[in-house]
Amino acid sequence: MSTRKKNILKVIILGDSGVGKTSLMHRYVNDKYSQQYKATIGADFLTKEVNIDSDKIATMQVWDTAGQERFQSLGVAFYRGADCCVLVYDVTNTKSFQNIKSWRDEFLVHANVSSPETFPFVLLGNKIDADDSKKVVSNKAAQDLAASLGNIPLFFTSAKTAINVDTAFQEIARSALQQNQNDADAFEDDFNDAINIQLDNDTNSCSC
Amino acid sequence: MGVRSTSQEITRETKERRSHSSSSSTSLVTSLMKSWRISSSSSSGSSSKPSNKSSQSFSGNPTTGTYNDTMYNNHSHTNDNNTNQQHRPSNEHGLYSLSTANNSDGNFDAMSKQQNSTNKSITSPANTYSPLRYSSPSSSQIESPRASVLRQQHYKHSHHNQLYYQHNNSSNISEHSTTHKKSSDKYFEDLDEDWSAVIDNYNMPIPMLTNGGNGKSSVSHNTQSNDPKNNLSRTSTASSIATSITSTTLTQGQSLQYPQLPNLNTMDAIDLQKSQEEIENEREVQELNSIMQRITKFDNIIKGKHIINLQELRQLSWNGIPKPHRPIVWKLLIGYLPANTKRQESLLKRKRQEYSEGLKHTFSDEHSRDIPTWHQIEIDIPRTNPHIPLYQFKSVHDSLQRILYLWAIRHPASGYVQGINDLVTPFFQTFLTEYLPPSKIDTVEVTDPNSYLTEDQKEHLEADTFWCLTKFLEQITDNYIHGQPGILKQVKNLSQLVKRIDLDLYKHFENEHVEFIQFAFRWMNCLLMREFQMDTVIRMWDTYLAETSPETTSSFATPNQLSTNNDVLLSPHTPVSRKPAMFGTPNADLTSPMSSTNRSNMGVQSGASPAGVSSSDDSSTRFSNTSLNEFHVFVCAAFLIKWSDALCDMDFQGIITFLQNPPTKDWTETDIEMLLSEAYIWQSLYKDATSHWLK
C-alpha cells in the first residue's frame, strides 16, 4: 500500500483438462470449492493480494488456462510475461502426469522467458483427497519428475479439502517474486548474469 | 430492395437539399451508439454512472435522423429504385413529419430507459415506433429493423394512415406542429422517408399509441422496480412527450441542421391522464394481444402450407420465436427440415434412421473407440450448464455423450473441442420442449426427460439435435479446427471494429496492455453462451438462426442434396475441403461460391413465392451474405462497447476481471434484443466497409 509501485506477479496454471486447475485457483483466491465449474475456455483470471514472508506485499494475477490441447495455440497470449508457471496433474490420472513435461515445454516455447533454465515452475499433484485405491501416480514418481525438471517444488494438494493449497501458493508467490526481481535486476544491469536463485528444495510430501 | 432501395429514395429526394457529409455523421453515430450503451448498462443495474453524465450525453447527441442518413448513404450505391415513392397531401405530411420527430427523439428504448434511470421523469409511448427498438415480449409485434424495412413497401399506405391517426389522438400538439411545420419540414421530410423505411407499420396497433405500454416497461419493471420514482415513467402519455418535443423543436429546430433530441429539462411536465392501474391493465392486455398476434403470424407461415416461405419466416423470427413454435422453426431456419412440408416427414424419418445407424456403427466396436475424445467429452458433460437441473440427469448425460461423440468422430478435422458441449444444449433443450405440452414448456429445465420421453422419442430428439448441431457447426468449422483460425480472425476483426467504433476504448486497452484475445476468445468459442443465461441465449439464437442461416439449400433439398447430407454419416468428411465457404470469415464469404449458391437459391425462392416477395432480391442477398461468425463479431462489439465508459476507468486487472464476469445475470430478453439491434446497426454501417480494413 505504501509503495506506489506494487509488485504484480503473473502466474500461469497449466495441466490437462479436468485435473482441477480452476478448483485450485478458486480454493486459493476465494477459499471456496464447487463441483459446478464449467470447463475453462481460453483462460480464467483471478487476482489476490499476497503477503510474502510477512514483509513483502504483491498482487498475484492468476491465469487459469484451458486444459484441452486444442487451445494450446493461443497460449502465447496468456503465457507472456509470466513470473511463475504452475504445473498441475491429477493423482488419479496417469495421463495427466505423463503430460506434465510437455506442458512445461509448451510453456517455455510460447512464454519466451529470458532464461528457461532458471524459470520457476511448481508442480502440484491434485486430488489427494481421493481414495487410495484410485491414486495411480506414486509420490516417488512425482518426486523423481520434480527432480528431473530441475528440482522444482512439489506439493500434493486437494482443492476440495484445501490440503496444502495455501502452502503451495505461498511457494508459488515466493518463486514468482524472485523471478520478478531477477528480471528487473537483469534489466538494470546487463553485465550481471541473471542471478541463479536456488529454490528451496522443499519437496513437501503430504502427511496423509 | 428494402434498406437499399429506401436509401435510394432518400438520396434522390434529398440530394439537392442536403450536403452534410456522411463521414462526419459516422462519428455522430458513434456517439449516439454510446448513449445507448450508457442507458443499457444502467438498465442492467450495473452502471454507477452519475445521472448528469447520462443526460448530458443524451441531450448532446446527434439525432437519429442523422444516423439514418449515414446508414442509408452507406448503401446508396445500390440500384436505383423508387417505385415506392409516395405522394402525400402536404398537411398530412406535416403531421407525419412530427410523428417521425417523435420517433427520432424518443428513438430507442435504450434512450427511454436512460430517461427512466437518469431523470426519473417521463418516457414516451412514441418510443414504440422506434424502428430500432428492441421488441420485447410485450410488444413483439414490432418487427426487426430488417423485417420492417422489407415490409415497409407493402404496407406503406396503411402505415401512413395509422400515424395520421396517432396525431389525431394527440391533436393538441398537432396544431403546434403545423404551426412550426415550416421550420421542421426541411429535415423532417427526409426523416419521414427514413423512418417510414424502418418503422414497422402494418402491425402498429392503435391502442398502443394512447398509453405508455410498450416493450421497455418490462425492462424497467425488472431492473428498476425498486425505484419508486420510476413508476412515473409508465404514466407518461403520448401527448406529454410530444409536447416536450414540440417545445424542443421550437427552441432549437430553426437554428440547427437536424432535429434535436429533447432536452430532458423541458420534459418535467408530466401529464397524468390515466391512473397507474389502468395503464398496467391495458399494458397486460396489449402484451397478451401482441403475443397472440405473433403466434398467429407464425401459425400462418408454418401451418397449412405446402411450401413454407422461409424468407418470411426469417424476417419474423429475427425478433424472437414463440416457445411452442421454436423447435420447428429452428429446424426450418437451419435447413434441417425442408420448406416443402410434404417432404418433412420422410426426411425426418431418414435422418433419424441415419443417426440411429451411425450410433450402432460407432458404438458396435468398443475397441475402436477414440479414448481421448470419449474421455474429454465424458469429463465435460457433467460440467455443462451445471446450474441447470436438466443437465444433471443421467439420461441427459448419456444423450449428450452420444451426440457429441458421434459428431466428433464424424468431423475429424476439428474433432471435439470444449465449448461444443455448450453449443449443443440450446438445440437439445429447445427440441425437448416438443415433447412437452405447451403449458409445461417452462418446466423443461427441471424435468427429467426420462419421465416423459419414450425410447423412440429420445432417439428422435438426439437425432434432431445431432443434425442441427451439425448444420450449425458447419458454418463455423473454422473455429474448431487445429489452431482455431476462425476464432483468431474473429478476435482480430473485433479489435479492428472496436478501433473504428470506439477509439477511446481501443486505446485504453492498448495502454493497459489488454489484449482482445484475453477476454474475447471465449466469446467466440462459445458464442457468448458463457456470458448469458440459457433463456436469453436461446432468444439470441432465434436471431442468429434467422440472420445467418447459411444454407437454404437443404430447404430446397433435391434428392441430390440430401444424398450429400447422407454422406456425412456414411463417411467421415473433412468440411474444410468440401465446404470452403463455411469457413467464411466476413470477406471470404462475400466472394465464396457458397454465397452465390445461396443467392441463386434465394432468387429461386423469391421467384416462386407469392407476389411481393419477388421484389426483395436485395434483401435475400443480404441474408446469404451474413455469416454466423461475422454477425457474431458485431454482437460482441456491441456487447463490449456497452461497457465502454466503465471499462475506460479500469486498469488491466479491473478490465479483465469485469469482462470475465460481466454483469449480465439479470439480463432479460429485452436486453438481448437491444444488443442484437445494436449489432445489426453496426453491421449495416460497417459491413460493406469491413473489406477495406479487415484482412
Automatic annotation (TrEMBL), chain A:
SMART domains: RAB, RAN, RAS, RHO. The keyword GTP-binding applies. GO terms for cellular component: fungal-type vacuole membrane; late endosome. One of its GO terms (biological process) is regulation of vacuole fusion, non-autophagic. InterPro entries: P-loop_NTPase, Small_GTP-bd, Small_GTPase. SUPFAM superfamilies: P-loop containing nucleoside triphosphate hydrolases (SSF52540). GO terms for molecular function: GTP binding; GTPase activity. Keywords: GTP-binding, Lipoprotein, Methylation, Nucleotide-binding, Prenylation. PROSITE patterns: RAB, RAS, RHO. Belongs to the small GTPase superfamily. Rab family. This is Similar to Saccharomyces cerevisiae YML001W YPT7 Rab family GTPase. It comes from Maudiozyma saulgeensis. The lineage of its organism: Eukaryota, Fungi, Dikarya, Ascomycota, Saccharomycotina.
Automatic annotation (TrEMBL), chain B:
It is found in: Golgi apparatus, Golgi stack. GO terms for molecular function: GTPase activator activity. PROSITE patterns: TBC_RABGAP. One of its GO terms (cellular component) is Golgi stack. SUPFAM superfamilies: Ypt/Rab-GAP domain of gyp1p. Residues 21-59, 73-87, 129-141, 606-619 have a biased composition (Low complexity). Residues 320-548 form the Rab-GAP TBC domain. PANTHER family: LD44506P, TBC1 DOMAIN FAMILY MEMBER GTPASE-ACTIVATING PROTEIN. This is Similar to Saccharomyces cerevisiae YOR070C GYP1 Cis-golgi GTPase-activating protein (GAP) for the Rab family members Ypt1p (In vivo) and for Ypt1p, Sec4p, Ypt7p, and Ypt51p (In vitro). It comes from Maudiozyma saulgeensis.
